[in-house]
């Protein structure tokens, strides 16, 4: 009888332990993402394989900061993945992310690509390049400032000035040269436009192929996307990618980034995920799948991206760029850039 009770107590203890063990095995990091799931799912699968921690992604093109603010302490989100420094700034403006401290992240990510207070960490880098017609543009030693010069009158294409990628570029000009100089540049580029700003970055390269314009602004990874798309490869083959301002401050770069939410239910696992995303395996997968530059300097770009040549990047911390984003948006409206 004594043996029976001993066995029963053992079984009861095991039963009491079972829920916590199940909870641990079923731990999930909930992710709100500006990045499309198909781009990041293979990397998340690798994270689960290595750690046993599951992931769940909710994709939203925009509005994540507002959603987190509405949800408050009831939000299930642990991590936010963004596609632009402006989106990371929105999260901070809404006070929906928290600072974290990680020796791994500080080792893997250069200081200019992370928030000084640890509220966001860059994961990939992309250059805001100039695409130039192979046939009609012979001088490839270009600066952003050249797009406002008379020689490019009626020859410039770009997407909306209000798009986050362009706002970040304008903000970098404000940081370097001041608001008045940035406004003058915007007015010059507007005067040189071949058409009203429209479409995405790839649409501008298509317009160059069609002879509508000679130069455009576009993120560097789009060249890789076009070269590996049989319907768009001819567009890509019609242009050279130019990394501007190589003889002075360097090419403006932007990032995709990650943050831990303010009320993350699984903070420890969230930090583990971001650390994993900064390590060699995930960085290499990012580089191969989306033709972006690894933020971790120990990891090489993909072979295709490396074939475009090395370039000098602007060393201005992106936290400084983010400070001027609202002013950049006001300038776009002031000069009626999209009008």
Ordered list of secondary-structure elements with their pairings:
Elements: H1 2-25, E1 28-33, H2 37-51, E2 54-59, H3 64-71, E3 79-82, H4 85-93, E4 97-98, H5 103-108, E5 121-133, E6 156-157, H6 164-177, H7 179-192, H8 201-209, E7 215-219, H9 221-227, H10 233-237, E8 239-242, E9 253-261, H11 267-278, H12 280-290, E10 293-294, H13 303-306, H14 318-323, H15 325-334
CATH topology name of the largest domain: D-Maltodextrin-Binding Protein, domain 2
Give the helix tally.
15
Derived from helix and strand composition plus strand pairing, the structural class reads alpha/beta
Taking the sheet with the most strands, its summary is: 10 strands, mixed
Number of domains: 2
Terminus-to-terminus distance? 89 Å
Determine the CATH superfamily of the largest domain.
Answer: Periplasmic binding protein-like II
SS strand fraction: 15-25%
Radius of gyration: 23 Å
Count the E strands.
Answer: 10
Helix content range:
40-55%
Per CATH, the class of the largest domain reads Alpha Beta
Q: Poorly predicted ranges (pLDDT <50, ≥5 residues)?
A: 1-25
Mean of all residue-level pLDDT scores = 92
The run of helices and strands is: HEHEHEHEHEEHHHEHHEEHHEHHH
């Amino acid at each position: 009888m004594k043996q029976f009770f001993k066995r029963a107590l053992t079984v009861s203890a095991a039963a009491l332990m079972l829920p916590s063990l199940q909870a641990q095995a079923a731990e999930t990091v909930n992710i709100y993402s500006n990045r499309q799931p198909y781009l990041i799912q293979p990397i998340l699968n690798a994270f689960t394989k290595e750690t046993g921690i599951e992931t769940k992604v909710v994709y939203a093109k925009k509005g994540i900061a507002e959603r987190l603010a509405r949800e408050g302490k009831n939000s299930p989100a642990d991590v936010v993945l963004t596609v632009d420094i402006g989106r990371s700034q929105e999260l901070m403006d809404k006070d929906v992310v928290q600072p974290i401290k990680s020796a791994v992240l500080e080792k893997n990510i250069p200081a200019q690509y992370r928030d000084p207070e640890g509220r966001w960490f860059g994961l990939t880098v992309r250059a805001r390049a100039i695409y130039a017609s192979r046939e009609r543009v012979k001088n490839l030693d270009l600066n952003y400032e050249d797009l406002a010069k008379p020689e490019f009158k009626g020859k410039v294409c770009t997407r909306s000035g209000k798009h986050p990628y362009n706002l970040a570029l304008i903000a970098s000009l404000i940081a370097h040269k001041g608001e008045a100089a940035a406004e003058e540049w915007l007015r010059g580029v507007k005067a040189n436009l071949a058409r009203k700003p429209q479409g995405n970055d790839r649409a501008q390269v298509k317009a160059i192929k069609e002879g509508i314009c000679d130069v455009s602004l576009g993120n560097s990874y789009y060249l890789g996307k076009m070269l590996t798309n049989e319907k768009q490869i001819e567009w890509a083959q019609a242009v050279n990618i130019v990394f501007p301002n190589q003889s002075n401050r360097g090419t403006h770069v932007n990032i995709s980034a990650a943050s831990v939410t303010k009320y993350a239910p699984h903070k420890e696992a969230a930090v583990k995920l971001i650390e994993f995303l900064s390590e060699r395996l995930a960085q290499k997968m990012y580089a191969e799948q989306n033709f972006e530059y690894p933020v971790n300097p120990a990891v090489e770009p993909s072979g295709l991206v490396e074939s475009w040549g090395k370039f000098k990047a602007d060393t201005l911390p992106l936290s400084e760029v983010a400070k001027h984003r609202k002013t950049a948006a006001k300038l776009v409206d002031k000069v009626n850039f999209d009008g």
